[in-house]
Amino acid sequence: MGIKKIVYLLxxxxxxxxxxxxxxxxxxxxxxxxxxxxxxxxxxxxxxxLNVKQFGAAGDGETDDTRAxxxxxxxxxxxxxxxxxxxxxxxxxxxxxxxxxxYGSDSIIKAKSEGPAMLKILGQNIKIHNxxxxxxxxxxxxxxxxxxxxxxxxxxxxxxxFAQPTTKxxxxxxxxxxxxxxxxxxxxxxxxxxxxxxxxxxxSEVGWHHKVARGILISPTLAKQPESHNITIxxxxxxxxxxxxxxxxxxxxxxxxxxxxxxxxxxxxxxxKRAIKIQSPGVLIKDNKIYNSFKLDNFYDTYDEEHYYDMWxxxxxxxxxVKIQDNFIGGRGRYSAAVDIAGGSNIDISxxxxxxxxxxxxxxxxxxxxxxxxxxARKFKTISIKNNHLMNGRYGVHIVAKVSRLKISGNxxxxxxxxTNSPAFRNQFISLPLAYNYLH
Length: 440
Prior knowledge:
The chain has 440 residues and is mainly beta. Helix content is 11%, strand content 47%.
């Protein structure tokens, strides 16, 4: 046999052996090998990327990785901190500062012990994405965006399982997934999951004897903090915030100037008291889906329970310059008032679908109510209610307070006991056949 044929035969046999080995190797081993090579090459190719495993992080769900991640973050200005897939236990808050990006491969940062917060950010030009931040029912808050911070992007991330620690100094504070303080500007929150935030103890820090929890809270921590501005929450899911005492999905309060808050295309489920509460001016609420997930199974702990509604409201408004447009508000249960206007002027409620559950008893449930105002104010001005569909309730629009320049037009209704309590506006509604029975 010639030398060329022998070489050809040996090469063919080697190739065949490689193919057999690759075929026999378990698929998981292949994926893990490819992933390890990718992570090694990825880090070596770009010196701006700091892999936390290079600093000693294990990501095995057993080792305390706090020190290693903090070391990576301390070297991360103008760089990126990468957490490969895994579970990273921490026992102290991680602080992200100027010009830093921290991200993972849907990697989990999980609380190992009780504490006040998981992450804090302070500075400008900060990005957080593709992480799961798990409080493990040990930590009070997920992310604290501190006074002086600007130009922040948080996307494709989950913040879950926050509660009041047993530590006495923290046990009566409000559990919150994301807290944005005063003096914060230009924050984008996109494609987040906020879930499982629950207060078991009264929140004495807020000054009343009730249990308070928040999915996202935008509010100064101190009276002297400056205004916050230009904050967007979009394409996100907010769920399981409770209890009914005062468990709200998104709350903005304590800011005096127009916030420029946009709440866009989000989905709300099991937000025990309400989905959205507005106590600062300058907010757009548009294209959201709010579901009343309860039906005779959501109860107060510290208020007297009257049993005539399952959620207080989908949206409560207490301040000026608020637009509520193109939202779907429905679900299984009853609202006291699905949209509750208890303060504010220059309010626009238009092109929404608003309903109580189709099989609920709603003898005291309104769809839109202009209520006695915050701190007893009873006078409002410039409120427009137009082109909404209102279904299943006592009143379509219940006017309790006095409103100057109130406009009601183009609204349709079905299955209402009363269109409105105001004779001046009773003819401003168009009856439609009872439809939309998919609301249960």
